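== Item description ==
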Amino acid sequence: MKVGFFIKSVVLGFLFILLFAACAGQKGKVEVGKPSKVKILFSQEAYEHYVSGDLYRHSGDFRRAAEEFQKALRYDPDSYEIRLALAQSYFFLGDYPSARLEGEKLTIKTWEREQLLADCARHLNDWEEAKKRYLSAVSIDSSGTSAWWYLARISEQTKDSATAIRAQKRLTRLSPSYSNFYQLVQLLWAGGRHADAAAEAERYLESDSSDGRAYLLLGESLERSGEYARAAEVYQKLLERDSSDRAVALHLGDLYFELKEFASAESVLVRLAEDSADYVPLFYLARIAFLRPDYSRAESLYQKLIQRADTLPQGFTGLALTYLSWEKPEKALAVARRGLEKFPESPDLRFWVGQAFAAQKQNDSARAVFDRLVAEEPENLNFLFSYAAALERSGRVDTSVVVFKKVLSLEPEHAQALNYLGYTWADRNENLPEAKKMIEKALEKEPENGAFLDSYGWVLFRMGKLKEAEKYIRRALEKNNKDAIIVEHLGDIYRAMGKKKEAHVQYRKALDMDPENVALKEKLSR
C-alpha cells in the first residue's frame, strides 16, 4: 500500500465520522437561515468525490474541485452541500453565470446561498438583483459585514441613498473603523444630512478620540450644517494639538473667510502663505484684500499667486476682476489676455476680456466676445446677462430685450436682469407699469443697491411722480455719489420741477465726472 493512499484513506474516514455525527446531531432540527436537513453523502462514491473536491478547494485548485463536485452530484443530485460547493468553486474560477445557475438550483434559502447569488449578480453588473440578494442575506444573518458593505456600495451606485445610508450605518456598528465612518459621513453629506454626519463623526470620536481625521470630518460636517462657531472650536483644538497641521489650519482659515472674519482668517493664512510651495493661502489672502477693498494689496497677492502657480487660471481671473473694480480696465484686459496665452479656451478668462472691453466702452468688441460665449453655453446666466447689456450699449436695444427675457425665463429672480430690463424700458419711456414691477422685485432682493434705487427713481420720474422720484434718486446718491448718470437724473427731476438753478448745479457736477458727455453739455447750454 502506498503511503499517500493510506493517509488519504485515513483523512477521508475521519471526515466521514465527523460529518455523520453532524448529521445525527441535527436530525429533526430546523433553523432559520440554515438547511432544514443536512444531507451528508451516504453513498461512498459521492462522499469520496465530495471530500476530494473539498481538499482541492482548500488548496486553491478550484478547477479540479469543481470537477470532483460535479462527479459527486451524479451520485447525490439533491445534496445542498455539494451543489453549494460546486457553485462556490465556479465563482472562484470567475465563471459567474455557471455559479449563478447552480446557486439558483439550491432550494433552501440560506445566508450562503443569498450571498453567493448577490456576489454573482454584482460581477455580472445586475445591480438590482444584487441589491435584492444582499438585502435577503442580511435579513437572514445581520452580522455579515461583507454583505452590508456591498449593499451600501451598490445602493449608492443605483442612487438609492436611503438604503445606502442604512447599510453603511449598520456596517459602522459592526465594524467601527474610520474608513466605514468616513463613507457614512460622505453619504450623509451627499444627502444634505449634515447634522447627522456631525453626530456620526462624534460617535466615532467616542471610540477613538486620538484620530485627528475624524475631527476634520466633524469640523466640516458642522460647517455644512451651519454650526460655524462649533466648527471653529474643533479646528482650533486640533491646531492646539498639532500647530504644524496645514490641512487643519487651511480649514480654519477657509471657515473664517466664509464668516467674513477676515482678521482671524489672515492670522491663520499668512503663516501658511510663507510656504513657497502652497498657493491656496495666497488665493484666500488675495480675495480678502479684494473684498475689503484693498486693491493695491490684492494686486500684489494675485501677482504672487500667478508666479507661484501659473498653471491655475484663478490667479489671472482674480487679478482681472481686481483691475476692473479698481477702474483700470486696460490692465484687466492685459492680464486676461496673458491668461489666455496659457489657457486659450478658458471661458472665464474670455469673459473678463469682454468685461474689460465693456468697461472701456468698446461695446462692439464686448458684444462679439459675449456672442461667442453664449453660442457655446446658451444657458449660462452670466454670459447671457453680459451679452444683453453689451447689445443694449451698442444700440441693439430690441435684441437686448429678447436676451434679457431669456435670462429671466431661466432665472425669474435674477435681480440684475430685472433691474436692467426695467431701467431700459423706463429710459425708453415704455412698458412703465411692468418696468416698475420688475425694479420693485429687484429691490426686494437688494434693497440697498444704489443702481436699483436709481432705476426705481427713474421709472417714477417717467410716470410723473417727481417727489417720490427725487427721494429714491437721493437715496441712490447716498450709496454712490460718483455716478454721473445718477447725478444727471437728479438734475432732470429738478428741471421737471421747474428748479432750473438746482438742475444746473447737478448737470455741472455730472459733467465734471463725465467731461465727454455731449448730452450733458447740451442740457447746460439751455
User: Anything to note?
Assistant: Residues 1-39 have pLDDT under 50 and may be disordered. Residues 413-463 form one domain. The chain is about 75% helix and 0% strand. The radius of gyration is 37 Å.
